[in-house]
Write a structure and sequence with these properties.
By secondary structure, the chain is of the alpha/beta class. It contains seven helices and seven strands; from the N terminus they run βαβαβαβαβαβααβ. It has helices spanning about 20-30, 40-55, 70-80, 110-130, 155-175, 200-210, 220-230; strands spanning about 10, 35-40, 60, 85-90, 135-145, 180-190, 245. It is globular and about 55 Å long.
Length: about 260
C-alpha cells in the first residue's frame, strides 16, 4: 500500500519532464496520490497536459500566481474536482534573468519586487486561498535553495527571495499548526532544469557541487521526489516549519575535501 493512498492535491510549477515539480508528481503518484496540475500560458499547457495524462491525472488548470482572480478560480475548480485537498506543492520562482548574474547591488526596485511577488508572496497567497480546502492533516511543500542562507555567486535577488520564502514557511507553520496542517520546504542541490538553463555559471556550479558534496554526486528530481513523499505523507506527522536539505550533504561542508 502506497504512502499517499487516498490523498489528493495540487502541484504548481511543472514546466517539462526535467522539472523538480515533475519529479515530485511522479513520486507522489507512485505512492498512490491523485495529483492535479497548473500551468501558465499555452506553451506550458502543451507540455503539462501530456505529462499529467501519463500518470492518469485529469485536473489541469491555468494559474498565474500573480493574479488573485486566477488563484481564486483555481481553488474553485479544485473544490469541484477534489473537495478538500491533502497536499499542495509550490514549485514556483521567477526573477529577471539579467539580475541572476553579476553584482547583487545592481538589482532594480522592479526586479526585486517581481522576484518577491512570484517567488515568495505566491506561497502565502495560495495558502490563504486554499484555506478551507485544506483537509486536517494536509501538508504543504515548497522549494528553496542554499542561496537563501549563504552567498551563491549570481543567485542574487533569488537568494533574498528564498530567505523570505523560508521565513514564510516558519510563519505559515505557526498559523496552520493548530489545525494539524503542516508546511515544509526542501532545499535542493542544483539540478539541470528549465529554470537552470541559460543561467550564468550554472554548468560549473553543477560540476563543482558534485565534487564538493559528501555524496560526490549531483541531486536528481527522483531524490527530491522521494523526500517530498516523506514531507507530504503521514510519515512526517510531527514535522512542520522545517527546511530539509536534499543536497547530498553539500551544505555541511566548510571547505572541499582534499580528494575533491
Ligand atoms: O531557484 C533557482 C532558479 C530560479 C529562477 C530561474 C530563472 C531562469 C530564467 C528564477 N528566475 C529565472 N528567470 C529566468 O529568466 N535555482 C535554485 C537554480 C539556480 O539559479 C541560479 C543558480 C541556481 C543553482 C542562478 C544563479 C546562480 C545559481
Amino acid at each position: 500500500m502506497g504512502l499517499m493512498e487516498g490523498k489528493k492535491g495540487l502541484i504548481l510549477g511543472v514546466a517539462n519532464d526535467h522539472s523538480i515539480a515533475w519529479g515530485i508528481a511522479q513520486a507522489l503518484h507512485r505512492e498512490g496520490a491523485d495529483v492535479g496540475f497548473t500551468y501558465v500560458g499555452e506553451t506550458l499547457e502543451r507540455r503539462v497536459r501530456p505529462l499529467a495524462a501519463s500518470i492518469g491525472a485529469t485536473f489541469v488548470e491555468p494559474c498565474d500566481v500573480n493574479s488573485d482572480e486566477q488563484i481564486a478560480a483555481l481553488m474553485g475548480r479544485t473544490r469541484e474536482a477534489f473537495g478538500q485537498i491533502d497536499f499542495l506543492v509550490h514549485a514556483v520562482a521567477y526573477a529577471n534573468k539579467d539580475e541572476l548574474s553579476g553584482l547583487y547591488t545592481r538589482t532594480t526596485r522592479a526586479g526585486f519586487l517581481l522576484a518577491m511577488e512570484v517567488s515568495v508572496y505566491s506561497l502565502t497567497a495560495l495558502v490563504k486561498a486554499a484555506d478551507e480546502l485544506l483537509a486536517p492533516g494536509a501538508a504543504i511543500l515548497t522549494l528553496s535553495y542554499h542561496g537563501a542562507r549563504k552567498v551563491m555567486p549570481n543567485y542574487n535577488v533569488m537568494g533574498v527571495a528564498k530567505a523570505a520564502l523560508e521565513a514564510s514557511v516558519y510563519y505559515l507553520a505557526a498559523d496552520l499548526g493548530p489545525r494539524g496542517i503542516r508546511i515544509n520546504a526542501i532545499s535542493a542541490g542544483p539540478i539541470r532544469t528549465l529554470a537552470a538553463s541559460g543561467i550564468t555559471g550554472f554548468r560549473s556550479l553543477h560540476r563543482a557541487f558534485a565534487e564538493v558534496s559528501p555524496m560526490r554526486r549531483n541531486v536528481t528530481i527522483e531524490d527530491v521526489g522521494n523526500a517530498a513523499v516523506y514531507l507530504c505523507s503521514d510519515l512526517s506527522s510531527a514535522v512542520t516549519g522545517e527546511i530539509m536539505y536534499v543536497d547530498g550533504g553539500f551544505n555541511v561542508m566548510g571547505a572541499p575535501s582534499s580528494d575533491a
